[in-house]
Amino acid sequence: MLSLGNGEGGMRFFLSLASAALLASSATASVTSASDAGFDTVSTVEIAASPADVYAVLVTPARWWVAAHSYSGKAANLSINPQAGGCFCESLPATALTGAGSVEHARVLYAQPASTLRLSGALGPLQAEAAVGTLTFTLEPAGQGTKVTMSYVVGGHIRGGAAAVAPIVDQVMAQQLHGLKAAAEKRAP
Predict the structure, then answer these.
(1) Quick one: pLDDT band at residue 26, thresholds 50, 70, 90?
(2) What is the DSSP letter of 83?
(3) Which residues touch 90 (CB under 8 Å, ≥6 apart)?
(4) Sign of the CA dihedral running 74, 189, 182, 147
(5) pLDDT at residue 71 above 70?
(6) What is the mean pLDDT of residues 18-44?
(7) So what's the pLDDT on residue 23?
(8) Are the C-beta atoms of 45 and 181 separated by less than 8 Å?
(9) Least packed by Cβ within 10 Å: which of 38, 121, 169, 180?
(10) What is the model's pTM?
(11) C-alpha–C-alpha distance, residues 114 and 166, integer Å
(12) For residues 176 and 27, is the Cβ–Cβ distance under 8 A?
């Protein structure tokens, strides 16, 4: 297993060969450019559900985000307020030593139901770096379903180099897209 984590809040990203093989069969993912200044990733998947149904699931990350890629370890703690300025946030439960907490993963920049969701935020361990990221989901009708294109553009100073973490981030983001597909198809009639 490969792990990328900064130690804060217990956040760790785990990737296994089994999950990578699963993704290869259902989605395309690639790092489209990478340098020390930043990177771009693009993933696409076709989902057997209407754009409206896919969007309804997309803005409910508790249903599809991979729990291992959260600070609390529970996808149920994630939410998106799908309007400009809205938060993609996570509630952190209280512990014996602390009160309840929260994490802002990203801020909604653009929300057009059944079409586009764009967020601004450095996700996961990137949050502890001097980095910014723009995550865009574009939904297009495709036959009897929906083609979803997810792009994540990250720039800034990332210790260890942006190009070095780009393939890891790309794989983690592709896992999220696979989770969206599974959840949306489960909801579809």
Answers:
(1) low
(2) S
(3) 70, 71, 72, 77, 78, 79, 102, 103, 105
(4) negative
(5) yes
(6) 75
(7) 40
(8) yes
(9) 38
(10) 0.85
(11) 28
(12) no
| Cβ burial 116-135 (10 Å sphere, 16+ → b, else e) | bbbbebbbbbbbbbebebbb
The amino acid occupying position 11 is M
3-state helix, strand, coil in the chain (%, to 5): 30, 40, 30
Buried-exposed string 144-168: b where 16+ CB fall within 10 A, e elsewhere: ebbbbbbbbbbbeebeeebbebbbb
Distance CA(161)–CA(10), nearest Å, equals 22
Q: Which two tokens stand for residue 77?
A: 């703690």
Q: How far is CA 155 from CA 14, 63, 69, 105, 133, in A?
A: 23, 29, 21, 16, 6
